[in-house]
Specification:
The protein has 309 residues and is an alpha/beta fold. It is built from five helices and nine strands, in the order ααβαββββββββαα. It binds zinc ion.
Length: 309
């Protein structure tokens, strides 16, 4: 199988399916967005001083021996998450000067779980051999032992990350790098899923998606961030509901050159260096303050079970 040349994320199709099929999800989404709106407009603010620490369990689901990624590939990914969410990534200096004042420390940290759901010591990693060679974003088979995956750990205590052979959307011929479930959904399927070739910085991680940014992007969705262009299929009317990210037409791919203009958003153009665009791993370096506020709103609403430090 060849490696995709463009980023592809399955989060929005999953969101649209859940909105259509689950009244409970749709109503939870309204509550979560009300809180996010209050934080985004300054009507309310978080009391969290942080950092908020998120215990992570990585469920490695493999079909071949190579897909049973080693511990270094996993700990390397956790390191990337910690740097990116604290704005301590080595490449943050590449943010164009006009956006440097917007770079945010999200005050969120991640650690492999040390206690499992039964209270026993754990390294925060599960390993499951599967007969399946690929996993459908709509049926979430990777998230259940009965369908060739591994059951979620309680989603109010852990961020579940499944790492699996190959992810596909039956309506899209290209390989999907990863997908997340936005806050508000069923705890049994809450978390993010990432193809092993796009996870971590070593082992089976493959360029141009070998710097751990797929997980940074998908965890952003798990904390309720939308794509930077507003998910309107290239139009200029969609919004990511964050005021300090420029209005943009559609996704940027590869490593664009500043400025990249769409939607009359000159002179600075699209914020393609943002983790919530579709650029290559080496082309994304920042969250904004508005995005950080939105994530804090999530940690104060649907994900309030995670301690605020
Ligand atoms: Zn995405």
């Amino acid at each position: 199988m060849s490696t995709p040349t463009r980023r592809g994320c399955g989060t929005m199709p999953v969101h649209h399916r859940l909105m259509a099929e689950s009244p409970a999800y749709a109503s939870a989404r309204v509550e979560i967005e009300n809180q996010a709106f209050a934080y985004e407009t300054g009507a309310a603010a978080t009391a969290r001083v942080g950092p908020t620490r998120i215990p992570v369990v990585v469920h490695v689901v493999f079909h071949t021996a190579a897909q049973n990624i080693d511990d270094d590939q996993i700990t390397g990914q956790i390191d990337v998450l910690n740097k990116d969410y604290r704005a301590q990534n080595a490449d943050v200096g590449q943010v164009p000067p006009v956006w440097k004042p917007l770079v945010a420390d999200s005050r969120i940290e991640f650690e492999l779980a040390t206690t499992d759901p039964d209270g026993q010591p754990t390294d925060g990693i599960t390993r499951t051999e599967t007969a399946k060679t690929k996993f459908n974003i709509f049926t979430d088979e990777v998230k259940s032992a009965s369908t060739g995956g591994h059951d979620a750990w309680p989603a109010d205590k852990y961020l579940n990350i499944w790492v699996c052979p190959r992810i596909f959307d039956p309506n899209d011929p290209s390989e999907i790098l990863g997908y997340a479930q936005f806050p508000g959904g069923d705890p049994e399927t809450d978390g993010v899923v990432i193809g092993h070739k796009f996870f971590g910085t070593s082992g089976t991680a493959t360029a141009p998606f070998n710097l751990g940014r797929t997980a940074t992007h998908e965890v952003g969705h798990w904390l309720n961030l939308f794509h930077i262009w507003g998910d309107d299929d290239g139009g200029c009317s969609g919004s990511d509901l964050v005021a300090d990210t420029p209005n943009a037409g559609g996704p940027n791919f590869g490593t664009p050159t500043f400025p990249s203009l769409t939607c009359n958003n000159g002179p600075d153009g699209d914020m393609f260096v943002n983790y919530m665009d579709y650029t290559d791993d080496k082309g994304m370096f920042m969250f904004t303050k508005g995005q950080s506020d939105r994530m804090a709103a999530t940690l104060d609403s649907f994900r309030s079970s995670f301690d605020g430090g």
